[in-house]
Write a structure and sequence with these properties.
Blueprint: H1 10-14, H2 19-32, E1 38-39, H3 51-62, H4 75-89, E2 98-101, H5 104-115, E3 121-126, H6 131-138, E4 142-147, H7 158-164, E5 169-175, H8 187-197, E6 204-208, H9 224-227, E7 235-240, E8 253-256, H10 259-270, H11 278-289, H12 293-313, E9 320-321, E10 329-333, H13 351-362, E11 364-365, E12 367-368, E13 377-381, H14 386-401
Parallel strand pairs: 1-11, 3-4, 3-5, 5-6, 6-7
Antiparallel strand pairs: 2-8, 7-8, 9-10, 10-13, 12-13
Helix pairs in contact: 3-11, 4-11, 5-6, 5-10, 12-14
Length: 405
């Protein structure tokens, strides 16, 4: 690619494109060329948005709700969001303490852009969602990644948190359930982290709870501001409707936190995108206030798929996968494949080599763990129908058996 005639913003120039979307682009190109690919790369439910939510969006269009809303969102939706935080998470939230944005990613971006200055640091436990360090970079700050391996359940420990904090630390990002590992922090684990954070009042916490409703085996969900009320004045709790209600394309995220932060985020959003789509806001209102049976039904399906996919991966020579506690991803170690050669003659020296070979030689799209800050792993999204998942797992097993070691 040729250098631009005019220089880019230096923070943008240093940022990396999303690895997930790069894989999705490769899948689209192969399919356009007539190739067959089973994609386990996209992080979105394969279910349709619930019917009553879709109908609410259609009704909003017919009723003429197609104009701007307030920057922070429709009051009715913000009231429903406040009620959600109160009823489901035990947080004493007023509607004025909430903000609606065009997706959860915008909530995160707003918060970091509103508070970070050059030289600031953000602690990001690895493995992490691919966008966290890049958003930090775009805001002119530095992401301090803390490796959390399989032995720790892919979770940040109090000792590692303490060691990572410096006078420049401005934020800690906590994602539970986690993308990509599916790790879930228990109440006790959050309290242990909170004990460290209480000694460092300069550190804000971003609790990314977007997979809140996708926790398996009957386990309970907890969020940091819930278990340690003394930290509420510096915790931003982020959520949305994309994963719980299969509404990824509707682009509605929301958050709550201290008033000064919500006000700053609203100010930034007012100069950036203004309010989220009015139609999508009406649909999100129907999701939060209408029947909730979809959540339990989809969770049961995802748990069944998890069990099948993890079992299949652990039967593939060279792969090893812990059982994820939540979300809809399997994060499998491919260390046992390193140094192998594929039938096409490709030497596997990294997890990215494995991902490329799986796509090129087995027709299965995954994402390399190094994009999430921990390698050698591959991430597979089991948000796909059972037949496609079964076929993908069979192809992965056959690929692993075909390698020369």
């Amino acid at each position: 690619m040729n250098a631009p005639a005019h220089p880019l913003n230096r923070f943008l120039a240093a940022a990396k494109p999303s690895a997930t979307y790069q894989v999705m682009d490769r899948v689209a190109a192969r399919r356009a060329a007539g190739g067959t690919v089973i994609s386990l790369s996209a992080g979105e439910p394969d279910f349709d948005t619930p019917a009553h939510v879709r109908e609410a969006g259609i009704a909003a269009i017919r009723a003429g709700h197609t104009r701007y809303t307030q920057v922070a969102g429709l009051r009715a939706l913000r009231e429903a969001i406040a009620a959600k935080f109160q009823n489901e998470n035990g947080l004493p939230v007023r509607w004025q303490d909430t903000l609606v944005a065009s997706g959860g990613k915008q909530i995160i971006f707003n918060a970091l852009a509103a508070t970070l200055n050059e030289g600031d640091e953000v602690i990001v436990p690895a493995p992490y969602w691919v966008s966290y360090p890049e958003i930090v970079q775009l805001c002119g700050a530095r992401a301090v990644t803390v490796p959390c391996n399989a032995a720790s359940g892919f979770k940040l420990s109090p000792d590692r948190l303490q060691a990572a904090i410096t006078p420049r630390t401005r934020w800690l990002i906590l994602n539970s359930p986690s993308n990509p590992s599916g790790a879930v922090y228990s109440r006790a684990e959050l309290l242990a982290l909170a004990e460290v954070l209480r000694a460092h009042p300069q550190v804000l916490v971003l609790a990314d709870d977007i997979y809140e409703h996708l926790i398996f085996d009957g386990a309970a969900f907890f969020t940091l501001a819930q278990v340690e009320p003394r930290l509420r004045d510096r915790v931003l709790t982020m959520n949305g409707v994309s994963k719980a209600y299969a509404m990824t394309g509707w682009r509605i995220g929301f958050g709550t936190g201290p008033g000064w932060l919500v006000e700053a985020m609203e100010k930034l959003q007012g100069q950036q995108t203004s309010g989220a789509s009015t139609i999508s806001q009406h649909a999100a209102l129907a999701a939060l206030t209408g029947p909730q049976d979809f959540i339990a039904q989809s969770r049961a399906v995802f748990q069944r798929r998890r069990d099948a996919v993890v079992a299949a991966l652990n039967q593939a020579p060279g792969l090893q996968c812990q059982v994820p506690q939540g979300a809809f991803y399997a994060f499998a170690s491919c260390e046992g494949l390193m140094g192998s050669t594929t039938p096409a003659g490709t030497l596997l020296g990294s997890d990215e080599d494995v991902v490329n070979a799986l796509l090129d030689e087995a027709g299965v799209a995954t994402v390399h763990g190094s994009a999430f800050g921990l390698s050698p792993y591959i991430r597979l999204a089991y948000a796909l129908d059972d037949a496609s998942l079964h076929a993908a797992c069979q192809s992965i097993q056959a690929f692993c058996r075909s390698l020369s070691r």
